[in-house]
Amino acid sequence: MKVYIYKIFERFWHWTQATSIFLLAITGFEIHGFYSLFGYKQAVIYHDRAAYGFITLIVFAIFWHFTTGEWRQYIPTMKFVKEQIDYYILGIFKGAEHPTNKLVYNKFNPLQRLIYLGLKIMVIPIMVFSGFAYMFFNYPNQTIELSGLGPVAAVHTMGAFFLVVFVIAHIYLTTTGHKPLTSIKAMVTGWEDMDEKEARAMVISEMKHGLQKTKAHLLTAKDQSKFLDEALAETENILGVKKENKFHDVIANSGAGYFKIDRSGHYVEVNKAWSNLYKFKKQEDAFGKHYSLSRSKEAFIELERSFNSVLKGETIEHGLVMRKCQDGSVGYHTITMTPWIADDQIVGVEGFILDIDPEYAAKMEWNVNDQKK
Amino acid sequence: MKKVIQVILVLLLPQIIVFVVVTNSFNTKHAAPSEPIMVNYITKKHQSTMKTVDHSKFEILQQEFKRPQDLTLACLSCHTERHKEVMVNNHWTWDRKEKLHGRDTISIGKKNILNNFCVGVGSNEKMCTKCHAGYGYNDKSFDFTKAENIDCIVCHDQTGLYEKVKGGMPKPGIDLNKIAQSVGKPEKDNCGSCHYLGGGGNNVKHGDLDSKMNDCTREIDVHMAKEGEDMSCTACHTTQNHKITGKLYALSSEDKNRVTCEQCHTDRPHHDKIIDNHSYRVACQTCHIPVYAKATPTKMIWDWSTAGRLDEDSMPITEKDAEGNVSYNGMKGTFVWDDHVIPEYYWFNGLADHFLITDTIKNIPVQMNSLAGSYKDKGIWAESKSVSKIWPVKVHRGKQPYDLVHKTLLLPKLWSEKKGDSAYWMDYNWANSLTAGMKYLHLPYSGKYGFVETEMYWPLNHQVSPADKALQCVDCHTAKPEGRLSKLNDFYLPGRNHFAMIDNIGLGLLIITLLGVAIHGGIRVVAKKKLNHD
């Protein structure tokens, strides 16, 4: 199964960084005097320019990390570090499973987190600053002056060795994915091949995250959240509306599609948004219809399983679902189902559906097609 | 299709961007102009060649001059105040007030300084003053206030016929009348008649001043080359009111009145930032005078201790080396010559010290003149207004007499017209020669002499090579022992210096990682086969 984990900028950034580091290393070690390749002067010029290019990239990458929240990927943790080390030392030879799963904000294993964070906040800054010192403070008549290049060169060289060693280990560890080339392919296409279990965990976490995001968006986009809450509370007080109906009322005012299905699986209530999403002419047209009508065969089986769980009292946030609309077109939505309770009895299922961004859906579809190939 | 575009975007775009950035392909102006930046200089084709005065038309110069002094008086009859300018110039005084580096200000000049060629002027004046800009400097009693003794024409003759002999007098029989009418601005050979020939022969002393530079190719000297600008000495050594700019640290010790490359070329002439930045710590000369003595060999070693071998007729023996240079002369000792010499490199900040005849020898070899400077002499640590830069230097090594008891250098009396006057070049007796020399200076001499090794430093300035012959990065940025700066070891130079420990640890880590990867990978492959097999 393939899951989309590396976004396009991330991949662009990664490969540009890789090329830059490669070039910086080969020119840097030529300047260091290990061999002669470009010629000293050319090596210096290339090294300097690559450094400036790299710094520009870093600026963009920092911006990206903070605007997308991806920086959270690098929050260090010691949890599972031991398991991860054990895996590399022992488990991997026995065909054991990876001790951690990739999740939306946890796509790195704890060792990766630590190492990448170390690179980001230590090695790269040290290389950048010692590099600047190398470039600017080696001659007098400058604001800041060094007594000599020795210490700068020492730090810069150590950093360079560390990076080379890192790159070698890094490249090697790409082969420890699902299949040897999985990780590299993932870094090119964005889609990582995973085993069923890991993919499932990833998808669920992705869905959860997507839903949270959509919900947050729904509530905050019009900045009505507070108003909405107050209105609800007021309505509850005045009309004595039962708590169970709160869901219904919230949904009724939002863009989400609301539905209620009785135990036998027939729609008893849908809101305007719902009927619009399914392209019914009137809400009433859906009443009495069985929910299987809007599903493919496989999807139905899956939905049925969820449906039955909800009837047993679970609340299910179901992942991405494809719907067959009345006019024959297809749409995607997420679905959240919760028991419909009347007189302390589960009499059916109520829930809401959120239409999914067509671009995201397209990606998923691409994946499906890909798998078919 | 979308996938293909994405893959291209992700994989190829980075390569293209990095390539463009690194090769600077977006900058179409990156081809640097070949000409260096130039300021404050009017090229030959824009200079006026019109002569404003024709000295042959002056009646006073049409007389037969009985004495050269009469010619000088004739000059001064029109140029009424010029003698005042000349008589404070060190070409006349052979002396000037200089502050020695780290020491007091003293009167120093050709008059009293020692070198490791013919050692010193004292008691040998008549021979040495062939190059004095005056007439009759025969001994220390010479009257430096008598204007008629100024030799104007040694610098201003344009016939090329003028020649000086002992005591600085014109060679007998020279047509002073013709010379007087020819006078003009000093040209190469006016300066060269002395400065090319210092130390007793062409290019002996400086190594970068050679009579062949009167008419040379660009390979030898880009500035003076006939096919180029054909610059005269005064084009750089600009002169007003007989104040001549420029000086050399064989005699000087202060960082003043220097002639620099920067005065025309600025300190950033390269159209290349990295190279321009080097000029913070590297003198222009260092890269642009990759070798010196390009046309004529120069003297590298002069060992006086072997002097005195005479043939059966009591004439000094001479021997020549394979190139035909005199490698031994009974009068002077053993010589080593060299051409296309690679300079030695020193930090230099424009301040120098000199070993005076009254100084006590503490270190061997004795440094006749020591150039001050170090890597650390820069910025906030700089000891002078100018930071130390790496300079190319001709080091002339010698072995010359010193006082075994007083540990001072000794001045021999070398020259006399007659035998029995204690002159070494007549009598070949060191004891007498040294006694006479020191007595002449009223300085103590124990009577016990030996020979001590000495070094004299000549910063190089001339014989600038064409740009394409300049030193390249790896001439210095290399760990090879033949690297130009392999001996200038007081600083970290990229490409030359390494921290052995860091390199060893780094390379060790690299090997361990590669091994680790190989072993880990190997085990994985084997384990997987086994798992599949099971």
In short:
Chain A has 12 helices and 7 strands.
Structure report:
The complex is a heterodimer of chains A (373) and B (534). Chain A is built from twelve helices and seven strands. Chain A has helices at 8-31, 40-68, 81-89, 110-136, 150-173, 182-189, 196-220, 225-239, 246-253, 272-277, 297-311, 358-372; strands spanning 2-4, 191-193, 257-262, 267-270, 316-324, 330-342, 345-355. In chain A, strand 5 and strand 6 (330-342) form a beta hairpin. The longest helix of chain A has 29 residues, at 40-68. The relative contact order of chain A is 0.08. The model of chain A is unreliable at 240-244 (pLDDT under 50). Chain B has a domain at 95-131 and 185-471. Helix content of chain B is 26%, strand content 13%. Chain B contains 16 helices and 14 strands. Chain B has helices at residues 2-23, 68-78, 82-86, 90-93, 125-128, 153-156, 176-182, 188-195, 233-236, 262-265, 273-278, 284-288, 424-427, 430-440, 473-476, 500-533, and strands at residues 96-99, 105-108, 239-240, 243-244, 298-303, 318-320, 326-329, 333-338, 344-348, 352-354, 366-367, 369-371, 389-403, 449-459. Chain B is globular and about 120 Å long. Chain B starts with a helix and ends with a helix. Classes of the chains: A alpha+beta (373), B alpha+beta (534). The interface between A and B is large, with 56 and 61 residues.
